Known about the structure:
Blueprint: E1 5-21, E2 28-42, E3 45-58, E4 64-67, H1 69-76, E5 88-92, E6 103-104, E7 111-112
Antiparallel strand pairs: 1-2, 2-3, 3-4, 4-5, 6-7
Amino acid sequence: MFFMIGLTDGRKDFPFTQTILCNKCGKYGRYQVFMTYMSLLLFFIPCARWNKHYYVQTTCCNTVYELNPEVGKRIARGEDVRITDDDLTQVYAGNGSGRHQTKCCQNCGYMTVEDFEYCPKCGTRF
């Protein structure tokens, strides 16, 4: 007899939206809430979840914030919650346009849409 077990990471999007005036880009947008987690699979069936983190992403500039875990748990339970600035910790700064901006290295000409501080090809600061 053998067991098929595995570990995987997952993401769950919640049906939560809150209209906002973004502090980063100054445009109107919405908060979209999701949770990331690790999961133990037994015969491809999720048995346990741990390492849960709740995040908020803005639709206007794609800025990502980590959400206070207590507020995230309330949203996961379906409670009516209003997210405040005190509940958020910025993880990723969006580009302000709602789309990815292309960066071009002044030294080697390498183009990327990733949010690198240094060129991955030659190491020059963008």
